[in-house]
Amino acid sequence: MPRPTFARIDLDAVAHNVQAVKRLIGDRKICAAVKADAYGHGAPAVAKVMSMAGADMFGVAMTEEAVELRDAGIRKPIILLTAVPEEDIEEILEYGISACIVEEGFARRLSEKAVASATVADVQVKVDTGMRRVGILYQQAAEAILRISRLPNVRLSGIFSHFACSDAEDLSTSREQLRRFKWVIGALESAGLRMPLLHMANSCATLRMPEAHLDCVRPGLILCGLHPKTHGECGIQLQPVMSLHSRVSFCKTVSAGEKLGYGHTFTARRDSVIATLPIGYHDGFLRQYSNKGQVLVRGRRAPVVGRVCMDQTLVDVTDVPGACTGDEVVIYGEQGGSRISVEEMASLVDSIPYELTCSVGGRVRRRYVLGGVVVGETPMRSVVPPALVRQIFSASTAVPDGRAASQCDRLGAA
Questions:
Q1: What is the pLDDT of residue 413?
Q2: Which of these, 104, 99, 66, lies nearest to 84 by C-alpha position?
Q3: What phi and psi values does residue 213 have, to the nearest 5 degrees?
Q4: Quick one: which of 113, 100, 96, 31 has its CA closest to 62?
């Protein structure tokens, strides 16, 4: 029987959020950020629904993420949003991925490989306007972009940048970044080069800075129904996509004065009913929730008691009448008219909503719901799949030296 801990992914909510953003931005395009497995929601399924709902293209952080989307049937443009190793160039060309150019050397080598393979490389240049992670510094960007545009077998389809402080109450830094980006655009247009696509607005800027919408917005968080800190009204109605669920695996009574869990950090002040939940910090229920977090049981809040363990967590259900083994538990989401949001959970530990959803581990099954019906569920995903174990320890595996071979021989009976 599968472990009763799963993340429910509401695909109808995904479609709703895409449509809400489309209504907000008018005739601009949407580049949906689905990096990090769509912030833990499952990129292939989520991107498919986003595409059907009107997303025009997708942004990812790794070549492997782009290939995964292609393999899932996504045919719309996929843009790498940061630098990748030169070893990825062949896959970029094979799968028709838009390469992110953060320095001219990579663009030249991409051009050479494209010429050699008789293909055309689609590229977008990342301009550093103040984030200071990667990108061509804005003062040098126009001249570099002009040189890149002249490389053989290279199609320059756009340029973009990224806001560093769009969630700050004071937007002056973001407005200066936008000014710098527009300065680069102006320099290019003066030289006769008009970019097909300009984009800079992340979720916060999409909501707060209409002047930054340009040709395209690049939200991720709000498409997952999560609210960034916007210092005011959101401007659109979002629907949460992920909720996290489990069940009570064990119930017991403890006496006043008993100490619980690792380190005995909790002492019962009264005779209590304590429930054990099969979820822990490996599953994304952070250790910081020890003696601090809450969950929903039978529509009532039950506090976490003691330290959150790797696989299990204790909660006090004394004030939940009838609580027993098998009861559904909602970590975040709705139950019986009560709600604990991802945003609330993040605020409790001074985190951000997408850190929580990204932290939901691989052994937490994703249960996909469409039209109110469960349409699919992932298996528990092994970090090291059996096929890799067979590969590592197969007789044909090259062994670097005799000592390693001897060790493998000794392990042969395992």
A1: 47
A2: 99
A3: -70, -30
A4: 100
Neighbour count for residue 311 (Cβ, 10 Å): 15
Task: State pLDDT tens for residues 158-204.
Answer: 999 999 999 999 999 999 999 999 999 999 999 999 999 999 999 99
Amino acid at residue number 199: H
Structural domains present in the chain: 12-224 (3.20.20.10), 242-340 (2.40.37.10), 388-414 (no CATH)
What distance in Å separates the CA atoms of residue 291 and residue 42, rounded to the nearest whole number? 30
> What's the pLDDT band for 311 if we cut at 50, 70, 90?
very high
User: Residue 367 has which token pair?
Assistant: 């249960």
In this structure, are residues 308 and 286 in contact, taking their beta carbons and an 8 Å threshold?
yes
Question: Exposed, middle or buried: residue 54 (CB in 10 Å: 0-12, 13-18, 19+)?
Answer: middle
Cα separation values, 384 from 147, 362, 378, Å: 44, 11, 16
Annotated catalytic residues are 35, 262
C-alpha separations of 16 from 228, 240, 339, 366, 369 in Å: 17, 10, 20, 19, 14
**Which residues neighbour 80 within 8 Å (Cβ) at sequence distance 6 or greater?**
59, 60, 61, 62, 63, 66, 92, 97, 98, 99, 100
pLDDT for residue 399 is more than 50: no
How sure is the predictor about 388, in pLDDT bands with cuts at 50, 70 and 90? confident
Residue 139 confidence (pLDDT) above 70: yes
In tens, the pLDDT along 36-84 reads: 999 999 999 999 999 999 999 999 999 999 999 999 999 999 999 999 9
Condensed to tens digits (0 to 9), the pLDDT of residues 243-286 reads 999 999 999 999 999 999 999 999 999 999 999 999 999 999 99
Find, among 213, 250, 244, the residue nearest to 6 by Cα: 244
Name the pTM for this structure.
Answer: 0.93
Has residue 414 got a pLDDT over 90? no
Q: Are 285 and 307 in contact (CB under 8 A)?
A: no
